[in-house]
Amino acid sequence: MEMKETVLFYCKKIKDIPDFIPAERRIIVLADFKVESALKRVLHFPFITIESSEENKCFRTLEELTLKLMDLGADRGTLLLVAGGGIVGDIGGFLASTYYRGIDYCLIPTTLLSQVDASIGGKTAINVKGFKNILGLFNPSNFTIFCSEFLDTLPRKQIDEGLAEMLKTFLLADKVAYLDAVDVIIGGSPHLKKISTFSELFPFIKRASEIKSDIVKRDPYEKGERKLLNLGHTFGHAIEKLCGLSHGEAVSIGIALSANLSVKLRLLSKSDGNKIIRDLKSLGLPAESPVHPSELFETMTKDKKKDGEAIQFILLEGIGKAIIYPLTIERLKGLLNDLS
Ligand SMILES: NC(=O)c1ccc[n+]([C@@H]2O[C@H](COP(=O)([O-])OP(=O)(O)OC[C@H]3O[C@@H](n4cnc5c(N)ncnc54)[C@H](O)[C@@H]3O)[C@@H](O)[C@H]2O)c1
């Protein structure tokens, strides 16, 4: 089935967001309470506010939001503006995709992670009894507005969550963007020497969102090329689960381990492998696994990327060039034992 294409808009200031909103539509805003006041200054529509947490990304919230939409008289012609990080985006997208069997919606991602990753590609989801993203559907927003001013209120930790995903996107598809981003951001982390405000990340957000958007256009249902976006995630998911690290931290370590594995398989030069790990560390991101890679084996082989007797690993042939590399469970076990 063809997937609809999202139109992407970019602006630097929150005050410019209304320029992209169609005047003739009936509009309701669903917003993370942390961006509510900034948005209320420029968007004069009914608001529903939500506190973002994984616990709230659930059926109960979906039911409450549905009732609020009904109270506000939302009908099939309503356009829902969904503003917040990945949590509000996922549940808001799910809500819009199912309310009256689907109404139009626009995403306004307000965290770095949601701007470079979660808001692109049409994945919507809720959690059920602690199982993350277990219910969901593919339904891209009609349009998405990226506004870098939101980043200025984000805590540093939240920036790091997005940085790992942004670097991942460049590593798999765009060497020049990777080298530029590292060069510009490195001075900014952890001492923020070069980057005075996080919104200076804007050109990189634009590039990362375009890369992901192009990949998703070519492979909307993750049958092939879209799997490349899982670089670092097979290791990352296992680390997140076993070591209790955040998703961004785990992905950063996952990227480092994928680089090491790529070097070990002679796909990637040792100097590029070392550079990637050095860069992650210089950016203040973790690059070393708290447990030996062999301890990740059990969890990794249960991962959903398992395909028969092989796991489809995403590995690097160079900076800016990723490949899908199937590894049998037996071979993986041997490789992990020798990996540092
Ligand atoms: N749909 C996808 O393709 C996709 C991809 C990756 C992740 N995700 C999902 O995204 C979620 C994580 O997203 P996230 O990291 O954006 O987390 P989040 O939505 O919880 O936001 C993180 C925190 O930042 C706050 N916040 C949001 N915008 C802010 C702003 N401008 N200033 C200050 N604080 C702000 C939020 O209230 C929250 O406390 C997970 O549930 C994950 O499953 C979805």
Apparent shape? globular
The overall average pLDDT, rounded, is 92
What ligands are attached or bound here? nicotinamide-adenine-dinucleotide
Q: How many distinct domains?
A: 2
Rg is 20 Å
One letter per element, helices H and strands E, the order comes to EEHEHEHEHEEEHHHHHHHEEEH
CATH topology of the largest domain: Dehydroquinate synthase-like, alpha domain
State the helical fraction.
40-55%
Instruction: Characterize the largest beta sheet: strand count, sense, and whether it forms a barrel.
Output: 6 strands, parallel
Structural class, from helix and strand content?
alpha/beta
Share of β-strand residues: 15-25%
Taking pLDDT < 50 over at least 5 consecutive residues as the criterion, the unreliable ranges are none
Structure annotation, total helices? 12
CATH architecture of the largest domain: Up-down Bundle
CATH class of the largest domain: Mainly Alpha
Q: What name goes with the CATH superfamily of the largest domain? A: Dehydroquinate synthase-like - alpha domain
